[in-house]
Amino acid sequence: MKTPPQPKILLRNTNSSVFEKAKSLGLTDLQAKLVANRINQTEDLEYIVFPKLKNLQNPNQLYGAKKAAGIIADAIQSDGLIVLATDYDTDGVTSAWVARTALIEHFDVPESRIQQIIGERKSGYGITEEVVERILELQQSVSLVISADQGSSDEARIARLKSHGIQVCVTDHHQIPLEGVPESAVCTVNPQQPECDYDKTVAGCFVIFLVMTQVRQELIQRNVLSANSPTLKNLLMNVALGTVADSVSLQSPNNRAVVLAGLQQINQLNSPAWQAMRQLNNNNHQDFDAEFLGFQVATRINAASRVSDVTTAYRFLTAKSLEEAQYYLQQLDTDNLNRREQQNSMLLQASEIADNLYQPGRYSLAIKMQGNAGIQGIIASRIGEKYGIPTVAMTELEDGYLAGSGRGIVPNIDLREAFQSIENNRPGIFKSMGGHAGAAGCMIQQIDFEIFQEEFEAAIQKQIGEEPPYPFVETDGELQPWQLTPQLIDEINALQPFGRAWPSPCFAGKFAIDAVRVIGKTRTHLSFKLVSEHQQHINAVYFNALNDASEEIPFAVGDQIKIAFQPSLNHFMNQTTLQLRILTAQLM
């Protein structure tokens, strides 16, 4: 087995102008440095550091939103079905929840007139033929289909619905295909359109939320709703969930504001779903934060479509009682455990393949394996992070095709552009493709896999340049001894929410090992007792430090190590202490 390259520990650059401006806003030296390590311009700095809903970009700048509001209002005032066609991931499921809740609870549409059709992962992304068939099989007449978190690349299927007299209003946030938005749609709302001046980093659930706020205004103008009807602010709790889960930029003032406001609502525990989640996992008696949404909630919701039935996740969010929410959450938890088992098996398979493929100087990895197509995105992330290069993981389907999920891994890589470059060189190679710069999916014929490998390598090399990528961990520097206390967490948390483009603080340090042992069910995690250069004793944990349970611990008592770590709190025996979460450790 080849040894993957050891991650380099790099120091983030600090922008001096941003540091001074951050200090003028009342931040501590450490907080100002963290901000200046993440931003290169002072514009909108106050809105980023102190996100507020009142500073949200005006929905009027979302191109097509007013037109969509009129179309949806017409459908509300009709007597036909309103079909919500959404994606199967957390962004899609929360989009369905946002639209349904707005229509029923705010606009008084009878529940019998709302039909949710959430796509199935096995059928592929978007308004697929399977989704079209489900719509055409509906017994009642359809006034309007509203897509959310999908639709921009689905002209052929939308045209088919149009041919049956069914209107489709597209709301989405994915990149627009070269041929443009679907001509057969009555309206397309997508900030990626060149005519749109709205923030292009928002998630699909945020787009449908903004559209529904415009619908509210339209209904007020039509005297269907009173001017003092409740706003849709209560919908932000699950807009926050979908936004975090879709890994959109949390440097965006808009995304930061809705996530922060949504977390405040979530932590009030007024929803049966969030009450049930609190009982299942109380987050060590701390408030739920963005990291919790991403790693504890979104993983369970995504597990439903990966190994079972996505409607379980939707029913969990829409549960009307705590007992109902607990029932569906238990199913999601079971699905997640099943997903982990399948993931571990597929990861072993993928690791062997990647080890054989990888060579120093390589720019990308495309691996073909067998297993659940719903898990390949996770595999692409884990393998890509291990080697520090863009990775596409593909699984074999029964019809001679491969379904693939890619992760960019490297900053400034655009996977969607790479796929388009492949299509330009090899017209027709993709049965389907789509996604974002950092995460994209595709489907190709199995006989074209080696061609795809070569073209993907060339496309990534073209974007990166002459120097191949390598794994690295960026840090915010070293901490002073007096900073290594539980109070450090409060100082850091004032800058939440953390996520993509606004990463959780990470620091570097040199320590001696006082003790080390294997922990966890998988026997792949390590627990350390460390001693700093200033003779401070501190505990640390290193998750997935070993490839498997048979691997020997590569560290010994007395070793001097340099680590990159994230500080966290450890609650034990009514005591709270600082604990380091090691991201990489290197012998000195």
Task: Describe what this molecule looks like in 3D.
The chain is of the alpha/beta class. It has 18 helices and 17 strands. The chain is globular and about 75 Å long. The model has no long low-confidence stretch (mean pLDDT 94).
Coarse morphology:
globular
| Largest beta-sheet characterization | 5 strands, parallel
Ends distance: 24 Å
Note the total helix count. Answer: 18
Alpha-beta classification: alpha/beta
Portion in strands: 15-25%
Approximate helicity band: 25-40%
The value of Rg in angstroms is 24 Å
Q: What do the pLDDT scores average to?
A: 94
Low-confidence stretches: none
**What topology, given as strand order, has the largest sheet?**
3-2-4-5-6
The total strand number stands at 17
List the helices and strands and how they pair.
Blueprint: E1 8-11, H1 16-24, H2 29-36, H3 45-49, H4 65-76, E2 81-86, H5 90-106, E3 114-118, H6 129-136, E4 142-148, H7 155-163, E5 168-171, E6 187-189, H8 204-221, H9 236-245, H10 253-266, H11 272-280, H12 290-307, H13 311-317, H14 322-357, E7 365-369, H15 376-387, E8 391-396, E9 401-407, H16 415-425, E10 430-435, E11 439-445, H17 449-464, E12 472-475, H18 487-493, E13 507-519, E14 525-532, E15 537-542, E16 560-572, E17 575-587
